[in-house]
Amino acid sequence: MATLANCAAASHLVAKEKLASLSTESTFLGLQLHGHGQNAVRMINKVSKSHAIATSIRANAVAAPVETLKPADGKKTMTKSSCIITGASSGLGLATAKALTESGEWHVVMACRDFLKAEKAAKSVGLPKGSYTVMHLDLASLESVRQFVTNFRNSGMPLDVLVCNAAVYFPTAKEPTFSAEGFELSVATNHLGHFLLARLLLEDLEKSQSKAKRLIIVGSITGNTNTLAGNIPPKANLGDLRGLSGGLNGVNASPMIDGGAFDGAKAYKDSKVCNMLTMQEFHRRYHEKTGIAFTSLYPGCIATTGLFRSHIPLFRTLFPPFQKYITKGFVSEEESGKRLAQVVSDPSLSKSGVYWSWNNDSSSFENVLSEEASNQDKAKKVWEISEKLVGLE
Ligand SMILES: NC(=O)c1ccc[n+]([C@@H]2O[C@H](COP(=O)([O-])OP(=O)(O)OC[C@H]3O[C@@H](n4cnc5c(N)ncnc54)[C@H](OP(=O)(O)O)[C@@H]3O)[C@@H](O)[C@H]2O)c1
């Protein structure tokens, strides 16, 4: 686990532009620090300057310095790229963190609501020591999202890729539950929390010196009614967005985006439609201006993850073999992690505005979204209402 001393060190990794004139290789506290892309070392010499910043970071949100690779031949060195993954404490997020850190080219910030669980998970899958940092983030609290952004900035780490992966799913809930700000919990966590996070971190991504700066929002087949899986009731449908406009509070507005009666499975699917619409709206508004690639994906049916934790036990027992042997849509957590890691880092998946999927032979392709999940007018409206709900307007 990182310490406040690490924080002090991390806060010495200052903004790239200030340091463009420094040499491309330097040593600090025994670490080799090297250029990140074209610009150079992120370091300043005076430890005392960082003290105030370091102590302001919450104890459960500490950060380690970004490491560098130093190949055995000692000839070339390379700074690791930096990627934030929300919900990296299990399932797809954890498997992606593993795939990225094992490549030796990435430092992963595990943005998780349960610090200890994330630390244990990282150790249980053997994430290489020093290749990751756990930072606290509860997407069901907009205050926590803002605090996370402050903590991340205080760490001094650059941001090359943001992966909005975390999600909750309440298929058997009879009654809605609500976030800190009083929004229905699945849309609050899966969409609104990520919407605020991505909007705030856009300027950090823009500063990335990487040629492959990316913002990825994990989508799902279940939100796409142009598929067999997306046609299993209850189907995703955002309607005229009257519930979302009303604040999804279940008091003077429906907890459902379309204004209907609460249905936990539908709320999840609707939130995934919002994820895919948001990715496209980001692409239209910011791709040309910033060079950031905005993408989404369906990683496959990862039937063993914690996503299904609140489903009935019989479902959890039968779902994996059903997907494996009947639909043949089953994807292991390891394989799904490799897929998302591809979207993070593979140069051939750098196109913006794409919803990626994979064939059975694990080759990627640009998938087609449903009519609703690609509706530009709806994307604009979801964007504008979400801005109001998260306080960005
Ligand atoms: N499993 C599938 O078949 C499948 C298919 C298509 C798409 N997906 C998508 O894949 C992504 C990952 O899901 P998964 O299957 O890997 O499920 P998972 O194992 O349950 O992982 C979800 C992660 O989200 C985190 N999380 C939940 N609420 C949070 C909050 N308020 N703040 C911060 N983190 C929170 C969880 O944290 P805790 O560990 O603390 O609970 C967990 O780390 C989701 O976007 C899901 O929609 C999954």
From TrEMBL:
Subcellular location: Plastid, Chloroplast
One Gene Ontology molecular-function label: protochlorophyllide reductase activity
GO CC terms, sorted: chloroplast
Main localization, broad class: plastid
CDD domains reported in the protein's UniProt record: LPOR_like_SDR_c_like (cd09810)
Broad class of enzyme this protein falls into: oxidoreductase
Single GO biological process annotation from the record: photosynthesis
Listed InterPro entries: NAD(P)-bd_dom_sf (IPR036291), Prochl_reduct (IPR005979), SDR_fam (IPR002347)
Entry keywords, A to Z: Chlorophyll biosynthesis, Chloroplast, NADP, Oxidoreductase, Photosynthesis, Plastid, Transit peptide
Gene3D superfamilies in the record: NAD(P)-binding Rossmann-like Domain (3.40.50.720)
Catalytic activity: chlorophyllide a + NADP(+) = protochlorophyllide a + NADPH + H(+)
Its EC number(s): 1.3.1.33
SUPFAM superfamilies cross-referenced by the UniProt entry: NAD(P)-binding Rossmann-fold domains (SSF51735)
Keyword Transit peptide tagged: yes
Pathways per UniProt: Porphyrin-containing compound metabolism; chlorophyll biosynthesis
Functional description taken from the UniProt entry: Phototransformation of protochlorophyllide (Pchlide) to chlorophyllide (Chlide).
UniProt family annotation: Belongs to the short-chain dehydrogenases/reductases (SDR) family. POR subfamily.
PANTHER family: PROTOCHLOROPHYLLIDE REDUCTASE A, CHLOROPLASTIC (PTHR44419:SF19), PROTOCHLOROPHYLLIDE REDUCTASE C, CHLOROPLASTIC (PTHR44419)
Protein name according to UniProt: NADPH-protochlorophyllide oxidoreductase
Lineage: Eukaryota, Viridiplantae, Streptophyta, Embryophyta, Tracheophyta
